[in-house]
Design goal:
The protein is mostly helical and 172 residues long. Helix content is 79%, strand content 0%. It has five helices and no strands. Helix 3 packs antiparallel against helix 4. It is flat and about 65 Å long. It starts with a helix and ends in a 13-residue tail after the last helix.
């Protein structure tokens, strides 16, 4: 357990600063909401470190790659959302300009393609750090993690207890 504790501390030290910098600009969410976000990020790093059974060296190389990819994908997603907001405004107009709508749709598709490219590049880069089995576990973990977070939120809402990751530790 002592060994895993060191990995978790190393992973958090490497991952959390970049995760915080990758947050979208604009009006910051309430302090409670941001606290929950940080706990979810911390939980992700902890569970991913555990799931992949990362060595110290792997964690030191893997998390900066992951942080860079997540920051890039989030930036692209912010741009995509802005385009979609403009698209929503345009389609509400009575005489929407078809050319502008098509142009925005193309831009959204380009941004989505760039997000996919960033994720694919990350997997290629991660393959230099992780064994194939770890890479497979990472992909599966990333597919499952959002549902795990939703389950924790649902449980929290049902019992009215502390936010996910707060005072009660769960092993899921």
């Amino acid at each position: 357990m002592k060994k895993h504790g060191w990995y978790i501390v190393l992973a958090l030290a490497v991952a959390l600063p970049a995760l915080g910098a990758a947050q979208p600009r604009g009006n910051p969410p309430g302090p409670r909401r941001e606290d929950i976000r940080e706990r979810v990020r911390t939980m992700k790093v902890w569970k991913l470190t555990e799931e992949l059974n990362l060595s110290q060296e792997q964690a030191a190389r893997f998390f900066p790659l992951m942080n860079a990819m997540e920051a890039q994908v989030e930036k692209l997603d912010d741009q995509r959302r802005e385009h979609l907001d403009r698209l929503a405004e345009m389609v509400r107009e009575e005489k929407a300009d078809a050319g502008k709508i098509n142009s925005l749709l193309e831009e959204v598709e380009k941004l989505e393609a760039r997000q996919l490219e960033a994720r694919q590049q990350f997997r290629r880069d991660a393959a230099d750090v992780l064994r194939p089995e770890q890479l497979g576990r990472m992909v599966l973990f990333n597919m499952r993690f959002p549902e795990l977070v939703r389950e924790l939120i649902r449980e929290h809402e049902e019992r009215g207890g502390p936010p996910p990751g707060a005072s009660r530790r769960r092993d899921w």
